[in-house]
Specification:
This protein is mainly alpha-helical. 68% of the residues lie in helices and 0% in strands. It has a single domain, classed as Hydantoin permease.
């Protein structure tokens, strides 16, 4: 197999955290729409939307409004980070060294690595449980292993295959999501008290806004990882809008399905609600959304690996990690995530709620610092070429260098 950075989607990506040369750039802004639309349609998004009713005790309409407001606000910051990719050509956590310095960014990058591990482990739990739900002979632990294997496969091959995976899932998951809505509303039907269950409470409404905004902000530390291969002269607004609308639509619609499920089938968990409400098409719905988990996990695992390599390069002068380093790091990281998923699945909803609450305290100040520095202070002018010099103390490092 010929290994080339510009080869077809089935070949291995060589680059990891290095700046992407301008003559190696490729892709169109619409590719960003599909990667964010397709990767969001999965069970974890549905669970997150369901929290507006299960945890915050809102009615359907108030939950809908809270999630929409949070998504629209949070998506702005997510898309602003995405627009940095074509300009700089490096992963987001390499770029963030411009604000915090090489060693100053260690804490931020380490926290982001933990974020990837937490989200991936949460998704693995849902993937394993969903496979067990539709085929009981397969235990949740085996289901976790199956989803993990699919995630690892895409991460090993890298950027192109992940884009292809998400583009394919955009069509498949989008079709199944539409079918689920049609079946629940027009075939199964809604209970008479669907719109009157629960009500409004200020704390719950703000909670729904917060989790939806955080869902968007959680992409900020790695959104530009998927735009860094775009041509340097790609229009910033095109990148912004493709990322914004792809992520907003891809996440809000599954969240709506989540609140529909818990309002129409209260008392059980979301997986059981899907089975009860979608009847004969439930196996297809759950299988496709489980595959969506694998697509999203491959993205988070890939970016978690890039962050880990960024940490390694900070302390190992002159290290130039390529595909082998990415593969080995991915295997080790996935092993940790699988262990967390297996041993933490019994208290999933509690652990997940606590996890996203902690993330609010970290991601909000980080994204503010990054965006203010990039757009208002440095105006996007960083010395990307000097990135490697940061690991070599004998090389002078100019101001505003990403190190």
């Amino acid at each position: 197999m010929k290994i080339s950075q510009n080869s077809s989607a089935e070949n291995l990506e060589l680059s990891t955290i290095q700046p992407i040369p301008r003559d190696k750039r490729h892709g169109r802004p619409r590719d960003l729409f599909t990667i964010w639309f397709g990767s969001n349609i999965m069970l974890l998004t549905i669970i997150t939307g369901a929290m507006a009713v299960q945890i915050f005790h809102l009615s359907f309409l108030w939950a809908l409004a809270g999630l929409l407001i949070g998504s629209l606000i949070g998506g702005v910051f997510m898309a602003l980070h995405s627009a940095q990719g074509p300009k700089l050509g490096v992963p987001q956590m390499v770029q963030t060294k411009g604000q915090f310095g090489s060693y100053g960014s260690v804490l931020v990058v380490s926290i982001v690595v933990l974020m990837y591990i937490g989200f991936t482990a949460s998704s693995l739990v849902l993937g394993g449980q969903s496979i067990h739900q539709i085929y009981s002979p397969v235990s949740p632990d085996i289901g976790i292993a199956i989803v993990a294997a699919l995630s690892l496969w895409a991460t090993i091959f890298g950027y192109r295959i992940i884009h292809t995976y998400a583009r394919t899932m955009s069509w498949i998951s989008g079709t199944v999501l539409f079918a689920a809505f049609v079946w629940i509303f027009w075939v199964h039907g809604l209970p008479d008290d669907f719109f009157s269950r629960n009500g409004f409470n200020a704390a719950g409404f703000l909670g729904a806004v917060s989790i939806a905004a955080l869902w968007q902000l959680a992409y900020a530390p790695y959104v530009s990882d998927y735009s860094r291969y775009m041509p340097y002269n790609t229009n910033d607004k095109s990148v912004f809008y493709a990322s914004y609308f792809g992520c907003i639509l891809g996440s809000f619609l599954p969240m709506v399905l989540g609140i529909v499920i818990v309002c129409a089938a209260p008392g059980g968990d979301v997986l059981q609600g899907i089975v009860a409400l979608t009847g004969p098409i439930a196996p297809v719905v759950i299988i496709v959304f489980a595959l969506g988990i694998a697509a999203t996990n491959s993205m988070m695992l890939y970016c978690g690996v890039l962050c880990t390599l960024t940490l390694g390069q900070t302390f190992i002068a002159g290290w130039y990690p390529l595909a082998r380093a990415r593969i080995i790091t991915a295997i080790v990281t996935l092993g940790i995530e699988m262990a967390i998923a297996v041993y933490g699945q019994d208290n999933f909803l509690v652990n997940y709620t606590n996890f996203i609450t902690i993330l609010l305290y970290v991601l909000v100040p980080w994204t503010a610092i990054n965006l203010v520095d990039y757009y208002l202070v440095a105006h996007g002018e960083y010395d990307v070429a000097a990135t490697v010099a940061c690991t070599d103390t004998s090389t002078p490092v100019p101001s505003f260098v990403i190190c």
